[in-house]
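Q: what sequence does this backbone want?
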C-alpha cells in the first residue's frame, strides 16, 4: 500500500467545510474522524484496511446497521470510497478522499514549513479582502492573493460570474437550490467535476434533467435519503448516467397557487390574488365576494399611493 502526502491542516479544514455543506448527523462526523485517525496512524496509505468492531468502538457507534449506513452515506457524499469485504477474516477497504488539493499549489509556491503555511494563509486572507476592496482583475497573479484568485479558490457567486467557464456550474447549483429548497455553495471541486462531465459529452441541460429525475426518484423522496442529492452527488459520472437514462423532461415553471390557508383572513387572500393578476371571473364565487374584492382593492390603492 502506497503512502501519500497529505496536508493535515488543509484536509481537515476542507472536510469541516464539506460537513457544513452536507446534510449529515453526528454519527457521520464521528465515524469520519475515527477513519481519519486510523488513516493518519498508518501514514495516509491509499488503501485503509478496517475492522468493524475497532471502528465502531473508536467512533462510539453502537449499532452495526448505523455503522454500515453511515459508511454508505459518507461514500455517496464523496468523503470516502468503501469496498466491503465478504471474507470474515479479511477487513473491508476504505479509500479516504483527499481534500487538501485545492490549496496544494499555493502552499508549495509560498510555504516552506507548517508555521509558515499558517502565516501565509492568514496573509492570503487579508490580501483577498484588500483585492476585493481595490477591485483587482481576476487572473492577474502578481501576489500570493492574486494567485489564489486566479486558481479559483474560495469562489463566491459574484466572482464566479466574471469567469465564463463557471456559468454552467452556477446554473446547475442554482437549479438544485430551487428544486431542493436548500442552499448549496459554489465549491472549486464542483467546477472540476463539471469540467470532467463536459469532456465526457454531457451538457448542462442534461445535468439539470438528471437532477430533476433524481429529485423525483422514489428512493430520494424518502426523508432519510433526501440528503443524498447534492451537486457533488449528481456530478459523478455514475450517478449522472443513471438518472439521465431514466428519461422524462423538466417541467415548466408554474405560478405558485395562492391558497386560502396561507392567509390570516379573506381580505388578505383576495389582496394576494388580485395582485397576482387573477381575473374577476374566478374571484367572484358568491355575493360576499364583491365585498371582499372592494375591500381588497381599497387596500391595494392605499399601498400604491
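A:
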Amino acid at each position: 500500500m502506497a503512502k501519500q502526502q497529505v496536508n493535515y491542516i488543509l484536509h481537515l479544514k476542507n472536510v469541516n467545510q464539506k460537513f457544513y455543506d452536507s446534510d449529515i448527523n453526528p454519527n457521520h462526523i464521528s465515524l469520519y474522524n475515527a477513519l481519519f485517525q486510523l488513516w493518519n496512524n498508518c501514514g495516509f496509505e491509499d488503501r485503509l484496511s478496517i475492522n468493524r468492531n475497532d471502528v465502531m468502538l473508536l467512533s462510539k457507534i453502537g449499532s452495526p446497521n448505523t455503522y454500515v449506513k453511515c459508511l454508505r452515506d459518507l461514500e455517496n457524499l464523496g468523503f470516502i470510497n468503501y469496498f466491503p469485504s465478504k471474507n470474515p477474516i479479511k477487513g473491508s477497504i476504505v479509500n479516504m478522499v483527499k481534500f487538501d488539493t485545492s490549496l496544494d499549489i499555493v502552499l508549495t509556491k509560498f510555504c516552506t514549513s507548517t508555521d509558515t503555511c499558517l502565516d501565509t494563509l492568514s496573509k492570503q486572507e487579508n490580501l483577498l479582502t484588500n483585492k476585493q476592496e481595490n477591485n483587482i482583475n481576476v487572473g492577474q497573479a502578481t501576489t500570493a492573493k492574486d494567485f489564489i484568485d486566479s486558481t479559483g479558490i474560495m469562489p463566491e457567486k459574484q466572482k464566479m460570474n466574471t469567469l465564463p467557464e463557471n456559468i454552467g456550474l452556477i446554473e446547475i447549483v442554482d437549479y438544485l437550490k430551487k428544486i431542493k429548497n436548500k442552499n448549496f455553495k459554489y465549491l472549486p471541486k464542483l467546477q472540476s467535476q463539471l469540467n470532467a462531465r463536459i469532456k465526457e459529452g454531457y451538457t448542462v441541460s442534461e445535468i439539470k434533467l438528471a437532477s430533476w429525475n433524481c429529485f423525483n426518484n422514489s428512493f430520494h423522496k424518502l426523508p432519510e435519503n433526501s440528503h443524498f442529492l447534492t451537486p457533488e452527488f449528481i456530478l459523478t459520472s455514475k450517478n449522472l448516467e443513471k438518472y439521465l437514462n431514466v428519461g422524462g423532461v423538466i417541467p415548466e415553471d408554474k405560478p405558485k397557487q395562492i391558497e386560502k390557508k396561507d392567509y390570516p383572513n379573506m381580505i388578505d387572500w383576495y389582496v394576494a390574488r388580485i395582485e397576482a393578476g387573477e381575473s374577476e371571473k374566478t374571484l367572484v364565487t358568491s355575493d360576499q365576494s364583491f365585498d371582499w374584492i372592494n375591500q381588497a382593492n381599497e387596500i391595494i390603492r392605499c399601498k400604491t399611493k
